[in-house]
Amino acid sequence: MSNIFLKGAKENQGDKSKIFFFPHSGSGPGLYMNWGKYLEGFEVIGVQYPGRGSRIAEEFSKTLEELVTSIFNSLDWKSISGNFFFFGHSLGALIAYELAKKIEKNNLPTPKSIIVSALPSPISNSYKDRVKIVDEVELIDMMYSLSEELAEEFTKDEDLIALYVEIVNADIALLGTHTPSANDTLNTDIHVFGGTEDSIAINALETWQEHTLSNFSLHLFNGGHFYYQKNFDAFINTLKTILK
Fold this sequence. Notes:
Layout: E1 5-7, E2 17-22, H1 30-33, E3 42-47, H2 64-74, E4 84-89, H3 91-105, E5 113-117, H4 136-146, H5 148-154, H6 158-175, E6 189-195, H7 202-206, E7 216-221, H8 232-243
Helix pairs in contact: 2-3, 4-5
């Protein structure tokens, strides 16, 4: 299981508090690791899922539990000292949450807090209902909604499109394998981020509060599922406040 954890720029490494970024469906940690230049005093660590990037030769995880367990087994507790945090967007939010549960269950040092972004809480929504296989047309439409410039470059390479469709669908399928457990609460702080124009209902974000016995907060930003693109300054300033 090589290259699961990718470190950010050298200035964001060393004996510092750590923040682990868990990407959304079809994505790698590159985007999130670029945020490291705004997070002075933090070592930024991106989580790389199998089947992409430096792990392109590995098979996709078949279940969410398989993926979470592989990440858990790869954590080096000798290198994790002091405070550490999890940030997960969309699918990454569920992975971060389930990993925090597994860590707590095994009586290991837990994150100071987890930030879950743009995902309904487990008790408010059946993730199986969110499983929808996408084709190339839908994927390209989604790319244009994120970045027209990126989408135009992306569509020039048919092989890249086919690979990305495979990756996205493999990730989406993981949602359908999630099974809520009898005890779905943490002793860790949970902070929720979401976009006011996203399809996710606000009350589906609010009910994340039921998943923690500790502190909870909800932060809404103008924008859709990728709200941080339109309101990056507000987003990063809120994130920095939570990480203090």
